[in-house]
Amino acid sequence: MLALLALPLIALFCTSARAAFGWSQENGRTRLIGTSFGILGKDYTFDYVKVVGGGTAGLTIASRLAENPSISVAVIEAGGFYELDNCNISQIPAYGPEYSTSNTKDPLSIQPLVDWGDITIPQPQLGGRQIHYAQGKCLGGSSGRNYMGYNRYMNFPIRQSFLIDDENSGTLGTYHRWADQLGDQSFTFENLLKYFQKSPQFTLPIRPEGSQVNVDQAAFSPTGGPLQVSYSNEVKPLTKFVEQAYLQLGIRAIPGQNSGRLIGYAEFALTLDQKAGGLRSSSESSFLQQAIADTPLLVYKNTLAKQILFDDNKKAIGVKVDTAGVGYTLTARQEVILSAGTFRSPQLLMASGIGPSATLKQIGVQELSDLPGVGQNLQDQPYFQILYKVNLTTNSELFFDPEYVIEATEEFLTEHTGPLTSEGETLVAFEKLPSHLRSGLSNSTIKDISTFPSDWPDVELLVQAYNTTAVPTRGNYASFGVATHTLTSRGNVTVKSADTADRPLVNPAWLFTKTDQELAVQAFKRAREVAKATRVTVGAEVIPGPQAQSYEQILDYIKSSVDPFRHVAGTYALAEKFADEILSGKKNHKRQHIRGRNALVAHAKS
After folding, report:
1. Residue (of 484, 483, 464) closest to 398 by Cα position
2. I want to staple 534 with a disulfide (CB 3.0 to 4.6 A). Which of 245, 513, 551, 579 is the partner?
């Protein structure tokens, strides 16, 4: 329904002035856009081959490498351009949630041109549910279709002896613990900040006087870029009531979430390009487009990596790929860089002979390295929500009122403000579970969550001014969402065949442990407290409803509705010290010229 109501926006975009497609001229020299794309079926050799590299991290790495004119770089991406394959839905902030539902029964819940269509294996702890886990299959990866939040927080800090890495940064405490366990103080937040500041260019939102955002601009660098970061130009009417609720409940304001501190509430920074009228800024629209204009980077789009190739010394020397059924090989003089994400990086490693010996034998792949931990240690935050009707206008109107959509479209295109400039987010809060709810946890759960750094939150509260699920009647709705962060459940990724065209078997194992279940129930109660404190709800709770009161009733609801927060990480270790411990337990492994990103191994090991 939401996509159908977006049609007036599509028409308006198509009436803009005609621009040349496929070529450009600068200083009298013609540049063909096709020059930046690889030739199907032709074997080629590069200095660096970036495997399935069109995602959030991959395009960043590839474009930085390509800035050096003396080296050649190739990017392999299974998808294409989301701007062409997903209408304008991926570009307009308000439509970010489209095609991200966990519902596997609705054929419109998965957009196969930009999504991998991953569905989890049955989750026994969730009553056997199988859940769609949206993952970007396009240039830009999930940065081309996610909720656009830009936060420097590690989704999973180091707990006990486990190393968990993600693309984002963390709190001061989590990074100090990471650095201490690595034995390398360059991984503290203070020492990493200059690298965090290098990629984004921050721009203040365009707002009326008196409604400016509370942000620490020193967290950003004036020379950063090309990724664009800002805040929505519209402040939702619900926002001031959410702020009052947080303050009443003892949650304090903080100047954004990019300075190494999370505890408190703030607006969400967004990957939003104010110079482009408030459109999404992704790794494709920023890093790749800059690289296409300025460097000889070559992109192999709609191309699937099938296998990493190794020489007799187990050095990675290239990648077998497939484009539209045509197979060929891209060879690397220097390195193969693996950045296929938390699901497909371990899948490609196993298809190439690196992984658990039993799995390699089962799928008929010759063993290169027996690393039992490849695909293990998966961690992801469970997300669930409570839904209320409210007495304020929310983005729910985009679902129901075509006239409202037309007005919003005109406001977006001419003034760069209005409901289409955001996904309905208001304020997000991170906190330690307050004492009156913490007292409802068992001693074992308190012991588990106490192992995390003292500045790491137990709970994230995310209030959004729209209905994130189907509703029975028209109206204005608000979603009071919750994600838990001090988690103990561990899942895994494995494979059923050596063919990377087959989907990997994803087991997120949300709420598998008693600790995670108890924490979820208490976090649910906290979200109800926030909703009540806003004083804008109308009538009874819509979902799950006031009948869910006991521990068992609340837990049953959470199990039946839990969604991915899509911050999955941990399926292959970052550092050699922890790769030894987590992946194999062996010492003195040789590096094999394959590097990784996105919670992955930095080097293949023998």
Report:
1. 464
2. 245
pTM of the entire predicted model: 0.90
Return the number of other C-beta atoms located less than 10 Å from residue 255's C-beta.
Answer: 16
Q: What is the overall mean pLDDT for the chain? A: 87
Q: Which residues contact 240 (CB under 8 A, 6 or more apart)?
A: none
Q: C-alpha distances in angstroms, 102 versus 41, 507, 533, 542, 560?
A: 36, 14, 29, 19, 11
- pLDDT tens profile 418-440: 999 988 889 999 999 999 999 99
Task: Identify residue 381 by its one-letter amino acid code.
Answer: Q
**The pLDDT of residue 593:** 54
Measured CA to CA, the distance from residue 521 to residue 440 in angstroms comes to 9
More confidently predicted of 242 and 469: 242
| Residues facing residue 270 across a β-bridge | 149, 230
Q: How many Å apart are CA 58 and CA 45, to the nearest integer?
A: 19
Distance between start and end Cα atoms, the chain? 52
- Distance (Å, rounded) from C-alpha 283 to C-alpha 54? 8
- Long-range Cβ pairs for the range 445-452 (8 Å, 24+): 445/514, 445/515, 445/518, 445/519, 448/486, 448/488, 448/515, 449/486, 449/515, 449/519, 451/159, 451/160, 452/157, 452/159, 452/486
Question: Residue 23 has what pLDDT?
Answer: 82
Q: Which residues contact 198 (CB under 8 A, 6 or more apart)?
A: 221, 224
Q: Which residue has the higher pLDDT, 603 or 210?
A: 210
The two tokens of residue 42 are 């032709």
Inter-residue contact 187 to 178 (CB < 8 Å)? yes
Q: Residues for the chain: how many in total?
A: 606
Strands (E), 8-137: 23-26, 29-32, 44-51, 73-76, 80-81
The amino acid at 420: L
Q: How many CB atoms lie within 10 A of CB 150?
A: 23
- Min mean pLDDT across 190-199, 321-330, 529-538 is at 190-199
Beta bridge partners of 316: 310
Confidence of residue 322 (pLDDT cuts 50, 70, 90): very high
What's the pLDDT at 20? 60
* Angle, in degrees to the nearest 10, between helices 514-534 and 239-248: 120
Which residues, in sequence order, are bridge partners of residue 428?
Answer: 462
Query: How far, in Å, CA of 449 to CA of 446, rounded?
Result: 5
> Which among 246, 302, 355 is positioned nearest to 112, based on CA atoms?
302
Assigned token pair, 469: 């699920």
8 A C-beta contact, residue 551 and residue 521: yes
Number of CB atoms found within 10 A of residue 363's CB: 16
User: At which residue do the structure tokens 């007292």 appear?
Assistant: 439
Residue linked to tokens 């009707």: 389
Can you tell me the distance from the alpha carbon of 334 to that of 180, in angstroms, rounded to the nearest whole number? 31
Could you tell me the pLDDT band of residue 12, with boundaries at 50, 70 and 90? very low
- Active site amino acids: 567
